[in-house]
Design goal:
It is a single chain. The protein has four helices and four strands, in the order H-E-H-E-H-E-E-H. The chain has 95 residues and is an alpha+beta fold. The longest helix is centred in the first third of the chain and has 12 residues.
């Protein structure tokens, strides 16, 4: 459904965020799990809710918008570790 996603998938890239249609999110998750996607650009929500191991994780920023506070807030160290923990799991990554 997402035209931007369709454009980049052919090159092994994908995007994933909560604002996408469910079908697009599930497609990206399945393609990434099957190693058809080499680079996945995503929001922090993917690291919290979906078990998708990765070879490497790059964190661009550690702030998220907190609507309850009405401002940007730092991710907790535990949340950052959760995101970093997607990378280099020996049972999934032999490289």
């Amino acid at each position: 459904k997402n035209a931007d996603l369709k454009d980049v998938l052919q090159y092994g890239f994908a995007i994933h965020h909560a604002g996408m249609a469910r079908e697009d999110r599930e497609l990206v998750e399945d393609l990434f799990a099957d190693r058809h996607i080499a680079v996945l650009c995503t929001t922090a929500t993917l690291a919290w809710g979906v078990n998708l191991p990765a070879h490497a994780v790059i964190i661009k920023g550690t702030q998220i918008y907190d609507p309850a506070k009405g401002r940007w807030a730092e991710l907790s160290p535990l949340d950052v570790l959760q995101m970093l923990g997607r990378a280099g799991r020996p049972q999934y990554d032999s490289e």
